[in-house]
Amino acid sequence: MFWSKIFLPTLKDSPQDAEVISHQLMLRAGMVRKVTSGIYTWLPLGLRVLKKIENIVREEMDASGAQEVLMPMVQPRELWEETKRWEKMGPELLRIQDRHDRDFCLGPTHEEVITDLVRDNVKSYKELPINLYQIQTKFRDEVRPRYGVMRGREFLMKDSYSFNINEDSLNESYLLMKETYKKILERLGLEYKIVKADSGAIGGDASEEFHVLAENGEDTIAISDSSEFAINTELLLVEGEDINSLQGKPSPDGTGTIEIRKGIEIGHIFQLGEIYADAMNANVLDHEGKSQTLYMGCYGIGISRLVAASIEQNHDDKGIIWPEVIAPFEANIIAIGFGKDKMIAQAAIDIYNKLSSMGYEVILDDRNDSFGTKMKDSELIGIPINIIIGKQYTEKNEIELRHRDGHSSIVMVDDIETIFEYFKKEES
């Protein structure tokens, strides 16, 4: 990809309505553009990151044995009436009508649709357990959309639903999803906490949230300074206490003291039990041939929110510092004087072609802008490695390798394949 050919409208300054770092940098780096309140268009750079996160989520879900489906965004009122959530969801549920005045909604979640699917097609305990997931656009009519894609009306989410014959089997599915989410976040290189939580409007029994720790997080959580214990402060406060009063108190797990931290909720897992299956008459025949109400689990993770959460945790005053696994490009080739020096331009193109043929995701900055402008843009969008080609290359066969974290070296490169190997050695 040549820089001049990609649609990458960067901004020098942050828009006034961008309150948090991730929102500011996503706009400045040309990742998204606002359509209306809480709704964004993903531009090529942002979409590359979004797709990489989506692929990691899909790989880990597939590895867990879950099976991918794709359910409709538009859902009929009749299904929601079965669970009595048509009215219970309130104004967050965006309701629409077709030309025949039939009521529908844009799905904020898919418990009703998936339960309807399973009750019509799964008849025996022998077909269980089953875990079905999708990666789908969701819509919730937030009263106050804010923080860019972190709290939007429209967002991309992975939601999955397990169906089980009993509580023991449900618990196994729940723990498997818990481990799967841990693997996803560890692959993304994010610092996170698993937090005991309230089930809220989804309902059910056991419920835990996955929070990426960040100063601009919407949620306040209490964690132990000596263990993995973490809990939503709302579940810990007693009447008359404020959040700050929890700081320094003994941790409820008996290990260490409480610290108050900010977190971004990016995932939520629920043991729903029988509440949806019972309301919708979702039953199977058990091993004795008797009708048995299904047990159900629900597991969601916000893919678009993960983009913002990653930025909140990985940035500096220059811009984004992507974990390399989700960076939009692995390297940026900056040719000093690309439009003026034919030897440098050709050297840059040769390196670009070589690395591209090797399967690396490389962008070549072929613009006629100054080196300073090119470097600032590269740092803003967070490309991990800059390969800087100037007169030293044509005179001495030397290239500057400058990593996004600041360290750099001048190296002799007789074989371009050694560039990425060099950084691997540096990191080890």
Which class best fits the helix and strand makeup? alpha+beta
Catalogue the unreliable spans: none
- Rg (CA only): 25 Å
Distance between the termini: 29 Å
For the residues shown, what is the average pLDDT?
A: 91
Measured as a percent range, the helix fraction is: 25-40%
Major sheet: 9 strands, mixed
CATH architecture annotation name of the largest domain: 2-Layer Sandwich
Number of domains: 2
Globular, elongated, flat, extended or rod-shaped: what is the shape?
elongated
Count of DSSP-assigned helices: 13
Q: Give the CATH topology of the largest domain.
A: BirA Bifunctional Protein, domain 2
Strand content: 25-35%
Oligomer: single chain
Question: Layout of SSEs?
Answer:
Blueprint: H1 21-28, E1 32-36, E2 39-42, H2 44-63, E3 67-68, E4 74-76, H3 77-82, H4 85-88, E5 94-97, E6 103-106, H5 111-121, E7 130-139, E8 154-164, H6 167-187, E9 192-196, E10 207-213, E11 219-224, E12 230-232, H7 233-236, E13 258-273, H8 275-279, E14 283-285, E15 291-293, E16 295-302, H9 303-313, E17 315-316, E18 319-320, E19 331-335, H10 342-357, E20 362-365, H11 371-381, E21 385-389, H12 391-396, E22 398-403, E23 408-412, H13 418-427
Helix pairs in contact: 1-9, 2-6, 2-9
Outline the structure in words:
It is a single chain. This protein has 428 residues and is α+β, with helices and mostly antiparallel strands. It folds into 2 domains: 314 residues, Bira Bifunctional Protein, Domain 2 (BirA Bifunctional Protein, domain 2, 2-Layer Sandwich), CATH 3.30.930.10; 99 residues, 3-Layer(aba) Sandwich (Rossmann fold), CATH 3.40.50.800. The protein is built from 13 helices and 23 strands. The strands form 6 sheets. Strands 3, 7, 8, 9, 10, 11, 12, 13 and 16 form a 9-stranded mixed β-sheet that branches. The chain has a 5-stranded mixed β-sheet with strand order 20-19-21-22-23, sandwiched between helices. A 3-stranded antiparallel β-sheet has the order 4-6-5. Strand 11 and strand 12 form a beta hairpin. The longest helix is centred in the middle third of the chain and has 21 residues. It is elongated, with a radius of gyration of 25 Å. The two termini are 29 Å apart. The relative contact order is 0.13.
